[in-house]
Amino acid sequence: MPLQPGVNVLVGRNGTGKTNLMEALGYLATLGSHRVATDAPLVRSGCARAILRAAVVSGGRELLLEVEIARDRRNIARINRAPLTRARDLLGVLRIVLFAPEDLALVRGDPTERRRFLDEVLIMRAPRLAGVRADYDRVLKQRNALLKSAGSARRSGSDLATLDAWDEHLVAAGSELVHARLALVAALRPHVAGCYAGIAGTDQQVDLAYRSTVPPGLEPGEVAVPDQPALAASMLAELQRMRPRELERGISLVGPHRDDLELLLGGDPAKGYASHGESWSFALGLRLASFGLLRSDGVDPVLVLDDVFAELDVGRRGRLATLVADAEQVLITAAVDADVPGELGGVRLAVADGAVAPE
Questions:
Q1: Taking the chain (359 residues) in consecutive chunks of 10 residues, what is each chunk's mean pLDDT?
Q2: Which residue in 131, 138, 137, 126 sits closest to 180, CA to CA?
Q3: Using CA atoms, how far apart are residues 74 and 264, in angstroms rounded to an integer?
Q4: What are the start-end ranges of the E strands in 176-244?
Q5: DSSP category for residue 142
Q6: What CA–CA distance (Å, rounded) separates 79 from 63?
Q7: Measured between alpha carbons, how far is 162 from 150 in angstroms, rounded to an integer?
Q8: Which residues of 243-279 are buried (b: 16+ CB within 10 A; e: fewer)?
Q9: Residue from 308, 250, 346, 352 nearest 14 by CA
Q10: pTM (2 d.p.)
Q11: Which of 205, 184, 183, 191 has its CA nearest to residue 288?
């Protein structure tokens, strides 16, 4: 199914496959689903595998991207039918910013959602950071296993010496990830403020802060980001300070896996203070801010708005339409065509029984 430049509106009743299509495109861009945490639910019941495939124009070339998701073995990624050594080598070829109703969790959910948001944007801008994050996750898992086995009643000198070595590995990857996140938060701030104002139609102050277990983090309005060696030294010192508590609890308490992006609205945390409309505007503002930042790198991402307009009042619908109208390619899903502002124009496609056709 060819999609056109500019606005593409996919219209169909709920349950006809609109979100499945958007989810497939998002997976090809990020190797993850915006709906579920694992790959298993993405494979149809009774099937051994699922195959995602899309033709993408990237850097002036048309590339065929494929990911094979299997139940009983690792996933396989291909470009132009050639298998990649690692699936994550696919990252960065297709850049997508996807907003869906689940994104309300960016404002109201737990820190995991906001950490994932930051890391997705980081990896789209610098795909090599996928390797840094994978290294960090691997070391964290090993370190946690050691902490559990070397509890206060059983720890030995050899256990603690091994823990010292794992600390060094954790700091190497963790400080790089924290540094990248801090720089990203500083870069996102002006985009978030502008996008929130554009959607909400208000001059209410919005800001971002990065609350880190690796001092010093990033306070509201602060733009100076510590360099990575300083963060590495700080993280190592904090690990040493927290070691007795970590041994007692059997878990790592310091590092980017414990950090949070704090969203501030009028000086107060948006979580718990923002109304439903303000929460929607903030979540949309975050996604559109990431779109603006990625666009400033020189390549327009594909902007995907999955069932968004139905959740917005008339004013917000019109303002959102104005903000996205000049994107190189926008994919919008809606159950009812009337939910999408007419001024967006573009191509209308009908979705029924998992098939897409021109209206």
A1: 88 88 93 88 88 88 94 92 94 94 95 97 96 97 91 60 93 98 97 95 94 95 92 97 93 98 96 93 96 93 94 91 93 92 90 83
A2: 126
A3: 40
A4: 206-211
A5: H
A6: 7
A7: 10
A8: beebbeeeebebbbbebbbbbbbeeeebbeebeeebb
A9: 352
A10: 0.93
A11: 191
**343, burial (CB in 10 Å: exposed 0-12, middle 13-18, buried 19+):** exposed
Residues contacting residue 89 through CB under 8 Å, at least 6 positions apart: 77
**Token code pair at residue 327:** 């994107």
Q: Counting beta carbons within 10 angstroms of the beta carbon of residue 135, is it exposed (0 to 12), middle (13 to 18) or buried (19 or more)?
A: middle
Token couple for 205: 């102050």
**What is the four-CA torsion angle of 167, 173, 179, 181, rounded to 10 degrees?**
-120
- Report how far apart, in Å, the C-alpha atoms of 122 and of each of 30, 91, 133, 188, 208 are: 11, 11, 10, 11, 16
